[in-house]
Amino acid sequence: MYTLKSLRNSLINSVNSSRNSLVVNSRSLQLFKKPSDSKKDVEEEEEESAKLAFEDDYQIDPELRQMVIDRMRNKSRLRTQHRNFLHDKVPYNQAESWIHNTLKYKRMMFGRYGSESNVDPSLCFYTKTELAEKNEYERVAFPKTVQEMIAYNQDEKQKQAERIRTREENIVANLEKLETWKKDLTAKKEKKESEARVAKERKDRLIEEVRRHFGYTVHPKDERFKELLEKKEKEQRKAMKEAKKQQKEAKLLTKIAEQNKSSKDDKAEKVDKDED
């Protein structure tokens, strides 16, 4: 007993042999054709002969004939499942892999192709286990109710608006202080430059004193010059430190004197009140 596949292969082989014989016959007939016969007439004869041979061989099984015709029409040479997918049809008429029997795949096929997928629609509903897992996931992932989420969202929006308002107020306040900051920065810069200029002038004076001490021009890198300059700088730092100390003591004495004066005035006022 022949199977459908073996029968189809035998018919395809017979068609190919018939076509080859027709081609040979047509070529042999061309030897006896007159030179005036056109190429178009030869092609028409070959096509007619191939058509007759095809009809004779495939009249025994119309389904097989139609299958072979469809196969010959498929010029893309795509596989059946790929061609079905391209034309929005169910890729597989029957399961060809373990994944085609999974619940997820069947649900996907029904969702994409509907009743043409030959899938039971009841499979698309949650089972009791899946429904319990879904509810547990939602309980853990979204513990708050809808009302609580709405209230939380509104509270967050108010906090965000408050932060924006506070930041804008700070920016306005800082802009008002900008001119003051510019003046302070300019004053600090001028003070620093002034101190650097004074320090440079002071050092220049020390260098000049050292040169006058030797009585002739000495190179600043000379060891004697460096030693005397360092000595002069120490003396100068000591004098500046002493001056600061005296200035601090003078301020302290002035402050003590003011406090004593204020205490005496308070005592005098107290005495006057007691006498009254």
Name its key features.
elongated; 276 residues; mainly alpha
Describe the structure.
The protein has 276 residues and is an all-alpha fold. Among the domains are: 1-73, no CATH class; 193-252. Helix content is 78%, strand content 0%. It has 9 helices and no strands. It has helices at residues 4-32, 39-58, 62-73, 80-86, 103-113, 128-141, 146-176, 178-214, 223-275. The chain is elongated and about 135 Å long. The chain starts with a helix and ends with a helix. Pfam families: CR6_interact. It is found in: Mitochondrion; Nucleus.
Compute the number of strand runs.
0
Estimated radius of gyration: 55 Å
Oligomer type: single chain
Report on the biggest sheet: none
Q: N-to-C terminal Cα separation, in Å?
A: 146 Å
Estimate the strand proportion: under 5%
Q: Count every helix, treating DSSP H or I runs of 4 or more residues as helices.
A: 9
List the helices and strands and how they pair.
Blueprint: H1 4-32, H2 39-58, H3 62-73, H4 80-86, H5 103-113, H6 128-141, H7 146-176, H8 178-214, H9 223-275
Concise structural overview:
Keywords: Cell cycle, Coiled coil, Mitochondrion, Nucleus, Ribonucleoprotein, Ribosomal protein. Residues 234-252, 261-276 have a biased composition (Basic and acidic residues). The chain has 276 residues and is mostly helical.
